[in-house]
Amino acid sequence: MTPEYKATRARSADKKAKQFERILEAGMELFLKKGPEGFSMRNLADMLGMTKNNLYNYIESKRELWIAIRNNFYNQFKVENLEIVKEHKGSTSDLLFKLFKHFLDFAERDYDKFKMMFNIIEAPPSNKIGPIEKTYKEFRLLEGNTKLIQEAIDKGEIKGNLAPVLSLISYSLIMGVAYIDMNRNLDYGNPVWETIQLSQMDISNETFKECALKVLRLIFDNEI
């Protein structure tokens, strides 16, 4: 009896996990379509063919759902970053630029994830902190970036001694490139003239990214 009970329990847990993934995917789609203000748990339940009460067995608020979706994306990004670090051979400076490029590639791969990860779509407000938010651990991208830059400075790979400044500059440049690339994609969103003119510039996204990274290299190679 015990083995059969364990197998049933495992199947049940697997089924619940798959349903939760469905909820996250549908939730992202609805957030992108309606925005945090237009989003409702009732609409999400209808979209999934669930009752509202059943949906609340998985997630208790739209803010909790938003955080769960964002956390899911960050975990994916973190795993990919750790794999790059694990396989890297060479200088800390070169590792930094591999991670910068990965950031840009990750954003280009799925701009919807990028929008939710970096608060281009803001989190819905709530007077209550739910269980997911209570256990949520921030992904300290800027902090990790600063530590790696300081390590490269200590090794003499990067000139200067202001790691926080270089970290802010690199973060601003990389984030700006990702955001502009997103807006240059006419298949994404509802572009207006200020956005359309970006796409009409005769330069590919790949060339734009490569040039931005070269500029960042020049900044790192000069003493600040």
Describe this structure in words.
The protein has 224 residues and is mainly alpha-helical. It has 11 helices and no strands. The radius of gyration is 21 Å and the shape is globular. Helix content is 74%, strand content 0%.
The CATH architecture classification of the largest domain is Orthogonal Bundle
Structural class: mainly alpha
Q: Count helical runs.
A: 11
Spell out the helices and strands N to C. HHHHHHHHHHH
Largest sheet: none
Layout of strands and helices, then pairs:
Blueprint: H1 2-38, H2 41-48, H3 52-56, H4 62-87, H5 92-109, H6 111-117, H7 131-135, H8 141-154, H9 163-184, H10 193-199, H11 205-221
How would you describe this structure in keywords?
Tetracycline Repressor, domain 2, 224 residues, mainly alpha, 74% helix, Arc Repressor Mutant, subunit A
Give a concise summary.
By secondary structure, the chain is mostly helical. The chain has helices spanning 2-38, 41-48, 52-56, 62-87, 92-109, 111-117, 131-135, 141-154, 163-184, 193-199, 205-221.
